[in-house]
Amino acid sequence: MTDRTSLESELALFMGEYELANNSHDIERVVPFIAEDATYWFSDGSYRGIGEIRSAIEKTFAKILDEVYEVRDLEWPVLTTDVAVCRYRFAWTGVVDGALRSGQGRGTNLIVRQDGGWKMLHEHLSS
Question: How far lies 69's CA from each of 99, 115, 117, 127, in Å?
Answer without folding.
Answer: 17, 27, 23, 14
